[in-house]
Design goal:
Fumarase C, Chain A, domain 2; 3 domains; lyase; 22 helices; EC 4.3.2.1; elongated; Fumarate_lyase_N; Ribonucleotide Reductase Protein R1, domain 1; mainly alpha; two-stranded antiparallel sheet; binds arginine; 4 strands; Fumarase C, Chain B, domain 1; 4% strand; Fumarase/histidase_N; cytoplasm
Length: 478
């Protein structure tokens, strides 16, 4: 043991804090390179919550006196108000959020502050902090995902009867309800919500008690800490990481979260691409409210869909974070390595990007102006009911492949005449097959085609309304 006792001042100065082993202070460049406080201070609330739960348990286990525990609580309350008021002085010298808060605690309450770290390491501390913080963010994101779904369901209901050309290969395929089309995105975002809820279960597990890597010799009650922090399953059973080495080194939960976030962004990006196409003059299917668009500094006529374009772009950024995190882990031996400090910025940026994007999209959905005439015109241009004519012939006894061939000839004739299938006279249609009767026209109209697909999951407006009701009930429960 070193002969002279260490003063609080010395403890507050990191270059001397490690131990007497170090004979020279860290260089400024290395300090900046290794410090994380300027981004991880964002974890302060989780860090304090984790410390309070740890201290409470230390006292309950008889490891910490009631006085020390009270001092720690008092000190942490003061630190909380300092941080909230913006008066807390974050010091680069103290490397990260954990050491900054601990040093200030010791400044405020003396030796009790130094006792807080009993049975704990920054390795299990940081893993706990990130999990607690991410859990809160997942809860906010789930609400935002629900708000976006609710907004889309509303637009879908209003447009259940509106006919849009459905595309495959971006070629007109069959008429679909615009509401049905929007509900496809609601399905995607509903799966995203499920995925986030699933990720949350694995985020919500307690690493504390793993200490540096091997566990600790103090009789800690890890389950108690988990319960205090709300790290419990559906049945209220404490969720505690079961292997100390894994507890401090695992960042799978961060990767899983970023993967789920990437999928959310991919869905947003696909929707964005459609909004951009639909708003272009060539389509003119929709208009976006002015407040989501920008003009051009040179072309006075321009109104650009910047928000969906940016969202499409930011998808690359989030997927990039997923790649960053997954690569971060691939070469790490057990257990904790400093590499893991690099988990934070990608996670933070993923959450920020996702939150802003979901908020804007929920608002933007309500501001879509639909142009049903343009959609219908486009559907008519593309012979969207050709399949319906084939289906009609099948009902009259033809084999589908033969019907398909006959309709191809009919479409060719219609293209040459510059008319829609429904505009060919009956006598003309009968030249392709004598079995065609007056009743054919019902199915050849866009609306007839739409109404005919009255099957679970189909595009008939009745089905769309049924799905709207199902989504509403589901979202009300969430
Ligand atoms: N700032 C560090 C991180 O984010 C905290 C853990 C540091 N642990 C250590 N043994 N150096 O990962």
């Amino acid at each position: 043991m070193s002969s002279s006792p260490i003063s609080d001042n010395q403890l507050a100065n990191k270059s001397q804090a490690w131990s007497a082993l170090f004979s020279e202070p860290m260089s400024d460049l290395v300090k900046r390179y290794t410090a994380s406080v300027f981004f991880d201070k964002r974890l302060w609330a989780a860090d304090i919550a984790g410390s309070l739960a740890h201290a409470e348990m230390l006292q309950a286990q008889g490891i910490l006196s009631a006085e020390d525990h009270a001092a720690i609580e008092r000190g942490m309350a003061q630190i909380k108000s300092e941080i909230e008021a913006g008066s807390f002085e974050w010091k680069l010298d103290l490397e990260d959020v954990h050491l900054n808060i601990e040093a200030r605690l010791t400044e405020l309450v003396g030796v009790a502050g130094k006792r807080l770290h009993t049975g704990r390491s920054r390795n299990d501390q940081v893993a706990t902090d990130v999990r607690l913080w991410l859990r809160g963010e997942i809860d906010e994101l789930s609400l935002l995902l629900n708000a976006l779904q609710t907004a889309l369901v509303e637009v879908a209901e209003k447009n259940a009867e509106v006919i849009l050309p459905g595309f495959t290969h971006l070629q007109v395929a069959q008429p679909v309800s615009f509401g049905h089309h929007l509900l496809a995105y609601v399905e995607m975002f509903a799966r995203d919500s499920e995925r986030l809820a699933d990720v949350r279960r694995r985020v919500n597990r307690l690493p504390l008690g793993a200490a540096a890597l091997a566990g600790t010799s103090y009789p800690l009650d890890r389950e108690r800490v988990a319960r205090t922090l709300g790290m419990v399953d559906d049945k209220g059973v404490a969720c505690v990481c079961q292997n100390s080495l894994d507890a401090v080194s695992d960042r799978d939960f961060a990767i899983e979260f970023t993967a789920a976030a990437s999928l959310v962004m991919v869905h947003v990006s696909r929707l964005s691409e459609e909004l951009i196409l639909w708003m272009s003059q060539a389509f003119s299917f929709i208009d976006l409210a002015d407040r989501f668009c920008t003009g051009s500094s040179i072309m006075p006529q321009k109104k650009n869909p910047d928000v969906p374009e940016l969202a499409r772009g930011k998808t690359g950024r989030v997927v990039g974070h997923l790649m960053g995190l997954i690569t971060l882990m691939k070469g790490q031996p057990l257990a904790y390595n400093k590499d893991n400090q690099e988990d934070k910025e990608p996670l933070f940026d993923t959450v920020d990007t996702l939150k802003d994007t979901l908020r804007i999209f929920a608002e933007m959905a309500g501001g879509i102006t639909v142009k049903p005439e343009a959609m219908e015109r486009a559907a008519l241009k593309g012979y969207a009911t050709a399949t319906d004519l084939a289906d009609y012939l099948v009902k009259k006894g033809l084999a589908f492949r033969d019907a398909h061939e006959i309709v191809a000839h009919a479409v060719k004739t219609a293209i040459q005449a510059g008319v829609d299938l429904s505009q060919l006279p009956l006598s003309e249609l009968q030249k392709f097959d004598a079995r065609i009767g007056e009743d054919v026209f019902e199915g050849l109209s866009l609306r007839g085609s739409l109404e005919a697909r009255n099957i679970l999951g189909g595009t008939a407006p009745a089905q769309v309304r049924a799905q709207v009701a199902r989504h509403r009930a589901r979202l009300a429960q969430a």
